[in-house]
Design brief:
By secondary structure, the protein is mainly alpha-helical. The protein has 2 domains: 33 residues; 252 residues, MetI-like fold (Orthogonal Bundle). Helices cover 75% and strands 0% of the residues. The chain is built from 12 helices and no strands. Helix 2 crosses helix 12, helix 3 packs across helix 7 and helix 3 runs antiparallel to helix 9. The longest helix is centred in the first third of the chain and has 44 residues. Belongs to the binding-protein-dependent transport system permease family. It comes from Dongia mobilis. It is found in: Cell membrane. One of its GO terms (cellular component) is plasma membrane. This is Carbohydrate ABC transporter membrane protein 1 (CUT1 family).
Length: 300
């Protein structure tokens, strides 16, 4: 049996370890506060004032007026709805394509590093470079895409200048750039699954589809939720492709929320209202993150 003195010494050692851990983590937590929390608090404070680049001061407290103006702005609501459609489109399509490719690669034994290298090439490219490359590829007169279409009898398509096509063009370019992220994470999840349930199912006469429905999907649910959550957050923040390829046009057909906030801040010069829009966007992302996190905890 452990005596009272032994328990006291163990508690003292635990406290020393805890203090040592706090001391080690303090610099990282301080940097985290400065880099993340301070800008968020600053944006929240700015959103409560009439702060513009013409009058850059906090003299006029406006309360929640900037939030009401943002929510009442028709262009803001249009950008929010367009962003929601964009996010759903890219995340679902990337998930379907990524899961299908990951399932196929999981069966491959030879040349797997080669396939990894090919898949990671787009993901390693800077979004600005991706936007510039595809902007040249999709040029209505000089682009290689329209040239290839002309060889099979199709006329030129104004990929980035047609209000009905432009947003789908951005979605396809984003899929080309980011689908590798889905593939890598889902493939890592598939590679970590135990083999025993599949062997037992084969003995019982289950086919590949039944194994996928009753074994693969249930065991992959946590990985799927985490992958969708990370990709969803990145998709909501999409700015680079819009700025490089369309600048929100033609008209406002590709004016996603991140780019609209940028225009409000640095074109309309209204930093206060732009900060309010940023806080609204942050609140929406946090709410969705909390919901998916709770769902992930519930299915464990």
């Amino acid at each position: 049996m452990i005596g009272i003195g032994g328990i006291g010494n163990a508690n003292a050692a635990d406290r020393r370890d805890a203090r040592f851990g706090y001391a080690l983590s303090a610099p990282a937590l301080t940097m985290l506060f400065l880099v993340i929390l301070f800008p968020v608090v600053s944006a929240l404070y700015t959103s409560l004032h009439e702060y513009t680049l013409i009058a850059p001061n906090y003299d006029t407290f406006s309360g929640f007026e900037n939030f009401m103006l943002a929510l009442g702005d028709q262009e803001f609501r249009h950008s929010a709805w367009l962003t929601a459609k964009f996010v759903v489109g890219v995340v679902l399509l990337e998930f379907v394509i990524g899961f299908a490719v990951a399932l196929m690669l999981n069966k491959v034994e030879r040349f797997k590093p080669v396939y990894y290298a090919i898949l990671l090439c787009p993901l390693l490219m800077n979004p600005v470079i991706v936007g510039l490359i595809w902007r040249m590829f999709l040029h209505p007169n000089l682009g290689i895409v329209n040239y290839l279409l002309s060889t099979v009898g199709f006329g030129p398509v104004n990929w980035l200048g047609d209000t009905k096509i432009a947003i789908w063009t951005i979605i396809l370019v984003d899929i080309w750039h980011q689908v590798s992220f889905m593939i890598v994470l889902l493939l890592a999840g598939l590679a970590s699954l135990p083999k025993e349930p599949y062997e037992a199912a084969r003995v019982d006469g289950a086919n590949s589809f039944q194994c996928f429905i009753h074994i693969t999907l249930p065991m992959m649910r946590t990985v799927i939720v985490v992958t969708l959550l990370i990709r969803l957050i990145f998709a909501v923040k999409t700015y680079d492709l819009i700025y490089i390829m369309t600048r929100g046009g033609p008209g406002i057909s590709t004016d996603l929320l991140s780019y609209f906030i940028y225009r409000t801040a640095f074109v309309s010069l209204n930093i206060g209202e732009a900060s309010a829009m940023s806080i609204i966007l942050l609140a929406a992302i946090l709410a969705l993150t909390v919901y998916l996190y709770r769902y992930m905890r519930a299915i464990r």
